[in-house]
Design goal:
heterodimer; A: alpha/beta; Ubiquitin-like (UB roll); two-stranded antiparallel ribbon; 10 helices; 33% helix; 16% strand; B: 3-stranded antiparallel sheet; two-stranded antiparallel sheet; binds iron/sulfur cluster; binds FE2/S2 (inorganic) cluster
Chain lengths: 251, 251
């Protein structure tokens, strides 16, 4: 029977090593199946986080042959003829084996002011598809944090104290483009959110398993909104001449 | 501020890096951009052979400074397309990757450190000027179309020459490039939160949707328009110097 050779990182915050496992290959098998095989037949204590095995829960993010992927969406037959090296995400602190501590992402999420609306006056507001379709794309996010992991600002420049990361930009875009949200988060984006740290090099967009156009549809439009407010004197002048329904500044 | 400490555990084992030919794209980009830049500087500095009735090289369009400007007239206009392209979101991605290696390719280790500031400091904070270059580029598109229409007129008679086709291709592709711009997309409708309740909201949504479709091919327009402008200049230059003739049909 054909076999796949998996070289899996084993270790914890004190250090670790790569271990080699031979796993019988079955048609349609994904990397997560092979990890489960290893747990069942060789090392029951191999730590891995997973839940749905259907690319829905966003738990099984790891790095396969140097590329951040969902293990349940990565077929083994892609790697015929080469070893499959499975490592934990690089950007987050290691807990054990393939499991990292992604709590930083939730701490950042708590800094984003949630959806805020004003009580409707008079007629009920009818939501039209044209007004929500942009946010619908962003709501597909499964919080796998692969984009946060690959973003070089966080991954290589350790910019966690300067930049919220692409996942947070997607979240903020979904709120900023909501027809009934009344907050203005451009100040947050410019200051604590650090949107200027993103140099729009699109690695997040290239690997998002939900195919969200993170850079084109969330980050660049947000950069444009920040430019409207802080880098465009012409627009500021127009705004002051014709003050429109504007959002309240968030903190 | 939220920081996290990354465990050095995995770096002690050798983390795999991607093995594909990731460098091919950046290499081609560097070669094409350098060749184009050298040609553009040379052609702009010539100050001759840019006009042969009824054609005008796009590098020199519109011809300004006649009578008082002693250097090549190209220098009075070329800073507009130059600034527009240098601050283009797509081209930024491309040159940050291929010229600055920031990052050279996704998930590839890059030089580390906290000195990275992205687009938050001088000089890259100037990328926020892109919208101003857009306004000027729109004027340039109008001028290029005017020149293209002139290229159909041979001594007062309608006709089509090979040069007409070069200029027409240049005007079409330049229009595609300018009107698929991210800042243009923002300007026409991306800046709105609610299309159904804004003045001209529905119409702006329709325009925004069209521009969004073109925006998906913005990178193609970038390169195609770059090649078209180069080809049109070269053609006019060869024609004006007498090296080639211009096949034409005059009605
Ligand atoms: S935006 Fe995409 S890559 Fe990022 S967390 Fe959401 S689903 Fe994952
Ligand atoms: S486009 Fe911006 S957010 Fe996305 S990976 Fe690149 S730097 Fe990070
Ligand atoms: S196990 Fe749920 S996304 Fe992979
Ligand atoms: S020209 Fe490329 S984004 Fe504006």
């Amino acid at each position: 029977m054909e076999e796949a050779i998996l070289r899996v990182f084993r270790g914890d915050s004190n250090g670790g090593e790569e271990r080699i496992y031979r796993v019988p290959l079955k048609p349609g098998m994904v990397v997560l199946d092979a990890i489960h095989y290893i747990q069942a037949h060789y090392d029951a204590d191999l730590a891995v986080r997973w839940n749905c095995k259907a690319a829905r829960c966003g738990s099984c993010s790891a790095e396969v042959n140097g590329r951040p992927r969902l293990m349940c969406k990565t077929r083994l037959d892609e790697f015929r003829g080469t070893d499959v090296r499975v490592y934990p995400l690089k950007t987050f602190p290691l807990i054990k084996d393939l499991v990292t501590d992604v709590s930083w992402n939730y701490q950042v999420a708590r800094q984003i002011p949630p959806f805020t609306h004003k009580e409707p006056e008079g007629k009920p507001f009818i939501v039209h598809q044209v007004d929500v379709e942009r946010a619908q794309e962003f709501h597909k996010c499964i919080e796998c944090f692969l984009c946060q992991n690959v973003c070089h600002v966080l991954r290589d420049h350790e910019g966690q104290s300067a930049y919220f990361g692409p996942r947070s930009m997607v979240k903020i875009a979904s709120l900023e483009m909501h027809p009934k949200d009344v907050l203005d988060r451009t100040g947050l984006l410019r200051e604590k959110g650090g949107i200027a740290y993103c140099n729009i090099t699109k690695c997040c967009e290239d690997l998002c398993p939900e195919e969200i156009h993170i850079t084109d549809n969330a980050i660049i439009p947000l950069k444009e909104r920040v430019a409207d407010k802080y880098y465009d004197p012409l627009r500021a002048l127009l705004r002051s001449l014709a003050p429109s329904r504007r959002r309240e500044e968030s903190t | 501020m939220i920081t996290q400490t990354r465990s050095p555990a995995v770096s002690s084992a050798v983390r795999p890096i991607r093995q594909d030919a990731w460098w091919v794209g950046p290499l081609i980009t560097v070669v094409v951009v350098v060749v184009f830049a050298v040609y553009a500087v040379w052609a702009a500095a010539q100050g001759t052979n840019y006009r042969v009735e009824p054609y005008l090289s796009p590098f020199y369009s519109p011809v300004l400074g006649e009578g008082w400007w002693t250097l090549s007239p190209a220098f009075l206009v070329i800073w507009i397309p130059l600034g527009f392209r240098l601050t283009c979101y797509y081209f930024r991605k491309t040159y940050y990757r291929s010229f600055f290696g920031d990052p050279p390719a996704c998930a590839l280790p890059e030089r580390r450190g906290a000195s990275y500031t992205g687009e938050s400091r001088f000089p890259f904070i100037l990328q926020n000027l892109h919208r101003y270059f857009l306004y000027l580029a729109i004027l340039l598109v109008v001028v290029h179309w005017y020149e293209t229409i002139q290229a159909f007129v041979f001594d007062g008679r309608f006709g089509i020459g090979l040069g007409t086709l070069f200029l027409l291709a240049e005007a079409v592709l330049l229009s595609g490039y300018v009107f698929s711009c991210h800042s243009f997309r923002h300007l026409v409708g991306g800046c709105l939160d609610c299309y159904s309740h804004s003045a001209l909201g529905r119409a702006r949504h329709r325009v925004w949707s069209r521009v969004s479709l073109m925006n998906e091919r913005h990178h193609l327009y970038f390169w195609a328009s770059l090649i078209a402008v180069w080809a049109a200049d070269l053609y006019v230059r060869l024609l004006a110097s007498g090296a080639i003739g211009d096949p034409r049909i005059i009605f």
